[in-house]
Amino acid sequence: MKEKIEVLRQKFQSQMAEVSDDSRLEELRLSFMSKKGAIQDLMKELSQIPNDQKKEAGQLINAFKQEVQSKFDEKKVEIAALAEKLLLDATESYDESMPSACPTGSYHPITLIQRELEDIFESMGFDVEDYNEIVDDYHCFEALNIPKFHPARDMQDTYYLSTPNQLLKSHTSAAQNHIMKKYGPKLKESGRPIRAVFPGRCFRNEAIDACHENTFFQMEGVMIDKDISISNLIYFMKTMLSEVFEKDVTVRLRPGFFPFVEPGFELDIQCLICGGDGCPSCKNSGWLELCPCGMIHPNVLKHGGINTEENPFEYTGFAFGLGLTRLAMMKYGVKDIRVFNEGDINALSQFTSK
Ligand code: DAH
């Protein structure tokens, strides 16, 4: 039996060496392993072998069968790998050193202007803070000297949530109280002035058109210390706006009413397009309304834990609420506010930082 198996092994090996595709492999497999195959013939011969040699012969045949089977398995994998390599060689030729054609993303214009402003304010010693988009009535109104049922609440058509006392932030001023409580202790202990800006997304129930959106961005800022006056406010606003527009801007203050500042102002800049002579962009007035601001109301400072009942004017401060979306429209010449929220990549990818 041993010799027969050896002869068959030689035959198998030489035939296997010639095989290079699946169909030839299958043919060979059948000729050895099928019911009419060579190994089955060996099995048949077992009956003619003397009983005392049967066991050994049977084991030899089985071992050979396993050997043949594993050679088939190996060959199958080999053929598949070869086929894949041939396919890759035929289809894929690429040059690793070529520049990628994959488009890179770009920053949203609001992000660009926000970052630019953050850099400018940081260079003037301001901290940059973040705040929630869902706020409560106290922070959005009461702490800002807007009591319940005060008509000033009508200035903002607010989205109230179904959870009691919660609403979508209608202005970034809602973070003022939090900032005062966070930085107040340092102001009192070490005399470090509070200087912080806090950009954020705001929501109001506006009818949407080219100038109004229900979702927009503001950047609020406060500075609180001893002896802070309107001159400090004007200085910081003028410096910041000159940086943003990369030219010296002329500003003016007009009275404006906001319950959380006293006095309150509208800050205008002289029209950058006509230089103040009057043009369609400034509705022929020569001025553009840019940023409401004012001296923080004593009640707001009290709510923030800055001043006490006994010493209600120890610290003073200014606050401003810059319309980031509006600023982005002016800086980039965007005429329709809806561009910012529509998510049209073609439109939004055109903006770059300075
Ligand atoms: N929060 C006001 C609004 O969204 C804007 C504002 C006005 C902010 C005066 C201020 C301020 O900080 O002093 O309408």
Question: Would you write up a description of this structure?
Answer:
The protein has two domains: 2-90; 109-348, BirA Bifunctional Protein, domain 2 (2-Layer Sandwich). Strand 6 (251-255) and strand 7 form a beta hairpin. By secondary structure, the chain is of the alpha+beta class. Helices cover 43% and strands 18% of the residues. Bound molecules: 3,4-dihydroxyphenylalanine (DAH). Residues 171, 173, 220, 258, 261, 264, 292-294, 319-321 line the site of 3,4-dihydroxyphenylalanine.
**Largest beta-sheet details:** 7 strands, mixed
Structural class: alpha+beta
In percent terms, what proportion of residues is strand? 15-25%
Radius of gyration: 40 Å
Give the CATH topology of the largest domain: BirA Bifunctional Protein, domain 2
Number of strands: 9
